[in-house]
Amino acid sequence: MPRAETIALIQRYYDAFNAGDAAGMLACLTDGIEHRVNEGAHRIGKEKFAEFCSHMGVSYREQLKDMVIFANDAGDRAAAEFTVHGEYLKTDPGLPEAKGQRYVLPAGGFFEVRDGRIARITTFYNLNDWIAQVSA
To answer: What is the C-alpha separation between 105 and 18, in angstroms, rounded?
Structure first.
């Protein structure tokens, strides 16, 4: 897949995220999507990813801004850097109590692309920074 097509794929994925469009996000993924989130679970498959999206949609309201997307020349690897602007809506087990706290958090994602779809997503952010912001 050419580099420009990979960048467009990652942009579609994040545009769907910002629109709260889980179906649009899922359309960008392989059936065997591997999803890794720092400090969190490792999920495999669209069903597990859809469950994650459902949970996130209830607990958090987020918009990703200042997006910059990179891809290698082969188009099989990509990365994105962005800032998460969010609101903590419902308490997530093991985390501080949700009271509608707002947060701004630098974050990033790494991607593997196969056959025109995202095969792996690895997301990174500073959990301690997030906890400090929602605990203040």
So the answer is: 15
